[in-house]
Hints:
Blueprint: E1 19-23, H1 27-39, E2 43-47, H2 52-59, E3 63-67, H3 72-85, E4 90-95, H4 100-109, E5 113-116, H5 124-134
Parallel strand pairs: 1-2, 1-3, 3-4, 4-5
Amino acid sequence: MQYLFRQTYNLNTSLNKAEVVLLEPETDLGRLYAKYLRDASYNVFQALLSDLHQILAEVEPKALVYSSNLDSQAIIKQVTSIRRLYPNLHIITLSNHSEPIDVASWMEAGISAHINKKLSRPQDIVAALDQIFSSN
């Protein structure tokens, strides 16, 4: 007896994934992050803190990778301000040192994910973005 099977596959046919703005104050590290994101087909736009709002307005990205040397309260203020202007923007924070209480406060302010630089690899940013976008 012969059987006929039909399988349906959901293939992403677009070559480029979402637009991502990358804010990394350390130049070399920013280049490394951008390389991994571009290799994963993300459209990457690098920004400085001084021109962040201008780039967000021009690019209208799906995600912001936000690394900062600011203290926790300043990060909360920045994230809250960005979240108010761009409510659908996914924000991933990166830091070298972060206490659980700080990360909890950042989550309440509206970040989608946090990556501890000391406990991760640069390509983990790609994995985090892929996870965020696949769950939407």
